[in-house]
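Supplementary Note 2. Why include the ligand at all?

Several targets in our set were suspected to adopt different conformations when bound, so apo predictions alone were not considered sufficient. For every target with a known small-molecule partner we therefore ran a joint prediction. The input for copper (II) ion is given below.
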Amino acid sequence: MTTLSRRDILQGAAAFSSIALLARPSIADTAFPVLRTTPATAQLAPAGYPATPVWAYATEATATVPGPEIRVTAGDRIQRRLVNDLPQATAVHWHGIRLENGMDGAAPLTQAPVPPGETFDYDFVAHDPGTYWYHSHNRSTEQVARGLAGPLIVEDREPWLGEPGAASRELVLMLDDWLLDGEAAIIEDRWDDLHAAAHGGRMGNTATVNGTAYPGLPVQPGERLRLRIINMATDRIMPLRLPDLSPRLIALDGHPVAPRDMETLVLGPAQRADVVIDIPADSSATRLLIDPGNGEWIELARFEAEGDALPGQASDVRPLPAWGTLAALDLENAQREPLLMEGGAMRGMIETRYQGETLGFRELTARGMVWALNGTANNLDAPMFRATVGQTVLMEMTNRSAFPHAIHLHGHHFEVLDRSGGLNRAGDIRDTVLIGADETVEIALVADNPGAWMLHCHMLSHQKSGMMGWFEVA
Ligand SMILES: [Cu+2]
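The joint prediction is reproduced in token form.
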């Protein structure tokens, strides 16, 4: 794979902006709002550092990291014309949305990647309320790391915000992890870092909230807020805490949970959580903390309280309205499917299938493969399983490696049935599940969405180096 230097990107930007200008009249003809991918710059690092060259999503006027917020009400149609002004092909995946297969953006399975200078029309209904995100699903180890992700918020059909016991306001917090050099430029020669891929993945050294390192977020004393927290990092698992803010979890991956107290919230890559917090009436600053992996809790963002204190809040938090859109599981007649995760540093793999051959560990690493699902690395040739429409599928997910994985199923949400570690709670509905080293997790879903759906680890370094497959519903 070629690696772009910063000069290449700048030259690419110049070349493609002139192509885009020529193409603009036809783009203006479409009824769909434009979502453009483009090279841009963003002030990610703290003041005093240079701006970072990124790849960004843009509306007509502005390119931002994270990308522009897309916000609709449940049941609304989302329509966007992707216009690719990057020097690489791309595609947009609408993470967690149960949409029709052809709109899933999972290149190359559900569509061909969109070449530079070309367009693709996305058009689908967002049935389920909740906190989602959209991101590149082509060469995503590189493209998401360069900034191609944004929030997708589907509001409840019935009002929640402002009702008794609910929050009065909400904040979307997109948490990211960047690998930057001393000039705040993205370190680009590490997309294919097989050493990192065989461990926890490509880790960053700069954390941002909504594209800013260590921001101050203005709040009002006594205010009750709904945080929509999205982990958009390529590989980093984020243990989070909100001390002195009485955090209560109300949704995971968009789906409501009965409000429950939380001390530490662990979000794997691509996972989301909605959390209600109460800003104290009597303190000027509270914080969102992250454990960077060494047990030290460091500040990720600060809530800066200003103005008169609002009256105190009810102790109980109002639950979110139920979805009512998921089919009921039929566990007695479930089709059982295993998902075995193998490989990586300290364990390795033996006798693994890759592109029709059975290969040993050395031959696999020579081809950039260090992980396998069910004994096959990067399995795009045939589905891992087939299910008829409406069939309940029970998957036993076994992690036989020394690292956690965040397994994402496209086109469906599933229920966590059982757990063998502290990362999941039975009964939670998710689209991405974190499975610790040597853990086994059982999940079940109703395979009610026809099509070819990807199933992969959302640590994008792991996905790229083998933890990829798909299943078919027909
Ligand atoms: Cu993984």
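The helical segments are 6-29, 140-145, 194-198, 361-366, 460-464. Residues 1-27 have pLDDT under 50 and may be disordered. Comparable summaries for the other entries are listed in the accompanying table.
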